[in-house]
Amino acid sequence: MAGKGLHLFFDPVGGIAGDMLCAALLDAFPEHLEGLRATIAALEPPVGSAVSVETLYRPLRGSRFRVLLPQRPDHRHRHWRDIRVMLERGLKDAGVRGRALAIFERLAAAESRVHGVPVEAVEFHEVGDWDSIIDIVGAAYLLERLEVRSASCGPLPLGGGTVRTAHGELPVPAPATLQLLEGFAWHDDGLAGERVTPTGAAIASALTLAQASGGVLRATGVGFGTRHLGSKPNCLRVLCFDAAAVGPGVPERLIELAFEVDDQAPEDLAAALDKLRAAEGVLDVNTLALVGKAGRIAQGVRLLLRPEALDNVVDRCLRETTTIGLRWSAVERLALPRRQVAVEVEGRRLDVKVVDRPGGATAKVESRSLADVTDATERARLRRLGEEAALKAENARSAEHL
Known about the structure:
By secondary structure, the protein is α+β, with helices and mostly antiparallel strands. The chain has eleven helices and 19 strands. The chain has helices at about 20-30, 35-40, 80-90, 95-115, 130-145, 175-180, 200-205, 245, 265-275, 310-320, 375-400, and strands at about 5-10, 50-55, 60-70, 80, 125, 150-155, 155, 160-165, 170, 185, 215-225, 235-240, 250-260, 280-290, 295-305, 325-335, 340-345, 350-355, 360-365. The N and C termini lie close together (about 5 Å). The mean pLDDT is about 85.
């Protein structure tokens, strides 16, 4: 695997589900199975639970990911807030935890819009079962360990008919699945049934979507589902390319939300903006001074957020600030891959941000790491040494993966 991570191309021959995606990635990289098992065990699933991977030929060679639960599993509906607490306590790796939370956040936002309830009140039914939780956390672990940066996807099979859920019979694709996969291409191959599950949709949609694949192919994997589709294999193929072949950054669709405030005390507005920054799906909040009607001084507020968070953030803006009107529009953002690297310079720990740019990686020491250094010359010297050390460490790490 290349040091700059992977780009995945999903070929949904039979469809996409959480277990199929885990199976395909483990088929390509079986060495990560034991680490996945340890990560799942930290969540303390029911006693007697286990995860297994078996090789099948149907007629393609591939893998099947199975979650084995006791005969009487801990089957109950779980609120999103309870699952969040479980993940925050049980997942010690920040990267894995962040990916798992992001996937569940997308599911919660989709369920919120479909059923008309606040995100915090969303109650997961089928997705709250242990097998779905394990599928999502397993996928998050694999995506993080493989340093997956982006993904692209072939046309998804529509399927057809209905599926039985806790909400009754729902049409296929399920409403939450369609919410999650807006912008993806679909086709009808004439085969009925649920072909793309909400769990699979949430995992796929949480990845940065790119329009192209290509370059150096590092590995391929095939993951089988549980259903039989006649002559068509019920599998998901995953092709793993060097992320650098797709480009140093890929556009993602976001929402820019804006409003003005001219009648709220500065300290109250500051507290409100802190709450908005902490809201799920909000990526950035900034303000600028404006002169409004009748020469009144106002604050313009701009938020950048993920599309699925719009309804919740609109509600929060109207509750936390005195604005009486909001506007928003879809925007595209290209963000270069970046990561935090910790280095030690002369006995001092420095946090360094490393960014992959078209001309090569760059590094910058975070200001907080040098906040206690009062001499400007010394601060500049330590910054230079820290950035050199971080780039040296990154180059060595990349060479190990080649």
